[in-house]
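Ops channel
N.P.: pipeline sanity check, posting one input/output pair.
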């Protein structure tokens, strides 16, 4: 199991933690009944990690993480991530299985699976 660091985590390190956490997940062992779940993998003074399984379509809606950066690793399926924009063109980023991405603590964004279930660590 992943041992989280005992120091504040920046965006790139957060993404690396998500990728490493994803490596420890056995996809075949996940319960795919129901809409999915959010399972806490760890929490300490400096970070927390979650395994989010999305078996049914959902959209997180625009939200922030109260100043904390975010790292995401897509284990299976596809996911989109869209930052809140005030001016200019809408930018929706698409990620597939094996992709890892991060957002700074100042980000307001929304995330959703697309076409296929997308568990993400």
């Amino acid at each position: 199991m992943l041992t989280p660091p005992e120091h504040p985590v920046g965006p790139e390190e957060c993404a690396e933690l998500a990728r490493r956490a994803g490596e420890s997940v056995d996809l075949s062992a996940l319960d795919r009944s129901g809409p999915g779940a959010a399972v806490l993998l760890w929490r300490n003074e400096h970070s927390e990690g979650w395994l989010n399984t999305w078996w049914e379509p959902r959209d997180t809606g625009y939200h922030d993480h109260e100043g904390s950066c975010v790292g995401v690793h897509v284990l299976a399926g596809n996911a989109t991530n869209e930052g809140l924009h005030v001016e200019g063109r809408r930018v929706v980023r698409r990620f597939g299985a094996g992709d890892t991405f991060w957002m700074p603590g100042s980000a307001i964004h929304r995330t959703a699976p697309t076409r296929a279930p997308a568990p993400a660590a």
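N.P.: looks fine end to end. The radius of gyration is 14 Å.
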